[in-house]
Specification:
This protein is an alpha+beta fold. The protein folds into 2 domains: 30-127, Ferric Hydroxamate Uptake Protein, Chain A, domain 1; 156-301, Chitobiase, domain 2 (2-Layer Sandwich), CATH 3.30.379. The chain is 20% helix and 34% strand. It has helices at residues 2-21, 60-67, 165-176, 197-200, 213-216, 270-278, 282-285; strands spanning 30-40, 45-55, 70-73, 78-82, 85-86, 88-90, 93-101, 104-105, 120-127, 156-160, 190-194, 220-225, 228-234, 240-243, 248-254, 262-267, 290-294, 297-301. Strands 1, 2, 6, 7, 8 and 9 form a 6-stranded mixed beta sheet that branches. It has a 6-stranded mixed beta sheet with strand order 10-11-16-15-17-18. It is globular.
């Protein structure tokens, strides 16, 4: 009788300890805060901004459900609406909800994406007539360079190719944001390419820009003209919408297949590259897919979103 009572008490204490430590029972222990951002039109229209405490069992979907009014489809695996805005046809164009974690497009659904704490989750409702595939964005800076992505830290390599003084400026901006830069070019590194477009365009990841948004996810291009190439901004349909001055730089991110993201800090002229490097800050990049930078003026890309 006494032995049985001791076993019962020991079992109860063990159960309480497991629950308290979050060892796979109940909701689990806190693993850290995550930042949730919800926008419309390529980040142009803010909807909500939250900081939530993630549990061991948390997924991107669970965090969204806890912080916003949503509906789902396909058995709860995909988001249909957030705060009353649903995916579907608008004006003959297809709109839907897309998400990034630490500035990187996910290869798994929101219900399958497990969180480890510290992530920056961004949901955006946008037109996908030009592409449904945007491999990476700059709007969660300094992520993924500061903390990695998919739960793994990656070295960050600053690769200068004719960038001149813009390289030192880019280094200073990255380090000020808490990014630890590797020496050389380690395998599996997130690369930050700094230099004029004529030098960067031969890189396999950078070359995706010239294939259009369907390949790169970047709504910009460099077009030849009198005096050399010039940055052009595209609209959400991928049509040419604006030719920028030669001194306008570009900050964008993409991925070549499943490689880590590559960031582009570039432009047609040395002044353009320097302007792009100077814009490497959370204040200037936040909630943007990519940006064109002329002096201190930042123009979000695509042109005319929102």
């Amino acid at each position: 009788m006494l032995a049985g009572r001791r076993i019962a008490v020991a079992t109860a204490l063990l159960w309480a300890a497991l629950v308290a430590t979050g060892c796979g029972l109940g909701p689990g222990a806190d693993v850290g805060a995550v930042r949730l951002t919800v926008t419309h039109e390529f980040g142009a229209v803010p909807v909500l901004e939250r900081e939530a405490e993630a549990k061991e069992s948390a997924t991107v979907m669970r965090v969204l459900e806890s912080e916003a009014d949503i509906t789902t489809r396909y058995g709860g695996g995909f988001v249909q609406s957030i705060e009353g805005t649903s995916g579907g046809e608008r004006g003959g164009r297809s709109y839907d909800w897309f998400f990034f974690v630490d500035g990187v497009e996910s290869s798994v659904g929101a219900a399958e994406y497990s969180l480890r704490g510290g992530e920056r989750i961004w949901w955006d409702y946008r037109d996908w007539v030009a592409t449904s595939h945007v491999p990476a964005v700059v709007g969660s800076f300094p992520a993924p360079m500061s903390d990695g992505y998919r739960g793994q830290r990656h070295p960050v390599a600053l690769v200068c190719d004719g960038g001149g003084s813009a390289c030192g400026l880019a280094r200073a901006r990255l380090e000020a944001a808490g990014v630890v830069l590797a020496k050389g070019l380690p395998e599996g590194a997130i690369r930050v390419l700094v230099g004029p477009w004529v030098r960067l365009r031969s890189d396999p990841a950078a070359a995706l820009v010239e294939a259009g948004p369907a390949e790169s996810g970047i709504y910009a291009d460099f077009e030849p003209g009198a005096g050399g190439v010039r940055l052009h901004g595209l609209d959400p349909t991928a049509a040419d919408a604006r030719a920028f001055s030669p001194g306008t730089g570009l900050v964008a991110a993409t991925r070549h297949f499943e490689a880590p993201p590559t960031w582009l800090v570039t432009g047609a002229t040395p002044a353009a590259v320097r302007a792009a490097a100077a814009s490497l800050s959370e204040a200037k990049l936040r909630d943007h897919y990519a940006v064109a930078v002329e002096g201190s003026k930042v123009t979000p890309l695509p042109i005319g979103a929102g």
